[in-house]
Amino acid sequence: MSVKFIFLLPIFEVVLFILFGDFFGFFPVIFSIIATGLIGFFLLKSGFNPRNIASNPKDWIYKKIAGILLLIPGFITDTFGVLLLVRSLRFIVWDFIPERTKKHFYHDINSSDKEEIIEADYKDLDDK
User: Fold this and answer.
1) Tens digit of each residue's pLDDT (9 = 90 or more) over 20-51
2) How far is residue 59's CA from residue 65's CA, in Å, rounded to a whole number?
């Protein structure tokens, strides 16, 4: 289903652009597309602070993904981007992710599929 949605997304975006253009007018719709694109660009270009990323890695990832979605012109992607920015609404976007993708990227800490750690000794060949 997700592959079909990706192929149909541009068609849905154009249809929504036409519908919102009829309802709100051409210039407000163009202004909203440009404004969300600028917000997305700002989120992607926001400063790289390693301490902030280390303390909240999920928030940093959500902001970057939201920036990408807001940068893509369209109302569906903008809606998902805004939902990712609001911490209490992120579960809505999580429900749209296919289960197969969730299982691929989400690894349980107590899982039996842990990677085997191999210990090794090394010797610096430059020391004589």
Assistant:
1) 999 999 999 999 999 999 999 998 888 777 77
2) 10
Instruction: Tell me which residue of 3, 6, 4 sits closest to 74, measured CA to CA.
Output: 6
Cβ atoms of 17 and 74 within 8 Å: the answer is: yes
- Cα–Cα distance measured from residue 103 to residue 111, given in angstroms and rounded to the nearest whole number: 12
- Band the pLDDT of 124: cuts 50, 70, 90: confident
What CA–CA distance (Å, rounded) separates 94 from 58? 13
Q: pTM, whole model, 2 decimals?
A: 0.69
CB-based contact 56:64 (threshold 8 Å)? no
Q: In the predicted model, is pLDDT for residue 110 greater than 50?
A: no
Burial of 8 (0-12, 13-18, 19+ CB in 10 A): exposed
Joined together, the tokens standing for residue 94 give 């999580």
If you search the block for the tokens 């369209």, which residue do you land on?
A: 74
Please report the pLDDT score of residue 14 as a whole number. 92
